[in-house]
Design brief:
With 293 residues, this protein is an alpha/beta fold. The protein folds into two domains: 208 residues, Rossmann fold; 46 residues, no CATH class. The protein is built from 13 helices and seven strands.
Length: 293
């Protein structure tokens, strides 16, 4: 079965690749919807990619091959379901199609957050890590991901069409904040993992964009990011993870001036920009999202 699916996706299967160590579920985000918190808590009941949190295999590193991808799941030795928390997959047609061909029975989890809050948070993350250097207004025009990942309803419909409603769980970040335990219970039941009881510390899943700052030096941060990405592609993700754990990323990420807060008129303009998209998502989810408007 794995060989047939890999052939359909245009990949060769290494003899050492164990199909049981490939993910059976994906948390596809989009970005800045609580996926980092989910990665932490799901690590207690599921095998997730290691040492790299996001492999970017299905949207960016597909050319590395299935053996490269499977190398991130060496610790998966049975007893738990296997998954990947991969928020960049949400708005990627290539990732969606490749997962459908490779793992057609995969469970897909989407998380939707107030698009105004999310797009500001994503912009700050990208600036802090040196991915972009534009102002927020310029980034909305020049960085396609900011707006494309905000097309919630259209991409959700594509996931539903590709996998079917029984394999796609659409959730709200609002519910994650209101009752994290119930939210987690629903998610793990859906993907087939064992329930876990959240500790008090795990209930604090504040999104960290408020503490992010602009980089001290854009080019230094950009260079460090490129080196980290290159290392991950060379299966040296363990070195990157160790450096991050020891705090090396603090020398390159942020450290500059604070981000300016959006004015009330700017926030109002964003709400109007996303109003149609929110209306469409309300229809798909059959949920009242008026608070977002």
């Amino acid at each position: 079965m794995l060989e047939e699916c890999a052939a359909a996706a245009g990949l060769l299967v290494d003899a050492d690749v164990d199909s049981h160590k490939l993910p059976s579920f994906f948390v596809v985000g989009p970005p800045r919807t609580g996926t980092s918190w989910l990665h932490t808590v799901l690590g207690q009941c599921a095998w997730l990619s290691h040492p790299t949190k996001e492999t970017r295999f299905f949207d960016k590193n597909f050319d590395r091959g299935l053996a490269w991808y499977a190398s991130h799941y060496k610790r998966a030795v049975g007893g738990r379901v296997v998954g990947e928390v991969a928020p960049t997959y949400f708005a990627s047609p290539q990732a969606r199609e490749r997962i459908a061909r490779m793992i057609p029975g995969a469970k897909i989890v989407c998380i939707f957050r107030n698009p105004v809050e999310r797009v500001v948070s994503l912009y700050r993350l990208k600036r802090a890590y040196g991915w972009i250097h534009w102002t927020f207004e310029d980034a909305l025009v020049r960085d396609p991901e900011l707006m494309e990942s905000s097309r919630y309803a259209d991409h959700l419909k594509s996931w539903l069409e590709m996998f079917g409603s029984s394999q796609v769980l659409a959730t709200l970040h609002d519910d994650m904040e209101a009752d994290p335990q119930s939210y987690l219970d629903q998610l793990v039941d859906f993907v087939g993992a064992s329930r876990v009881r959240l500790e008090p510390g795990h209930r604090k899943h504040v999104l960290a964009s408020d503490s992010l700052t602009q980089p001290r030096n854009y080019y230094l941060t950009r260079g460090a990011l490129w080196l980290a990405e290159w290392s991950k592609r060379q299966r040296l993700g363990g070195i990157v993870a160790t450096a991050k754990r020891l705090g090396a990323h603090r020398a390159f990420v942020g450290g500059g001036a604070a981000f300016p807060e959006l004015s009330i008129p700017e926030k109002g303009k964003l709400r109007e920009m996303f109003r149609t998209e929110i209306d469409k998502l309300e229809g798909v989810l059959n949920r009242d999202l008026s608070a977002w408007k």
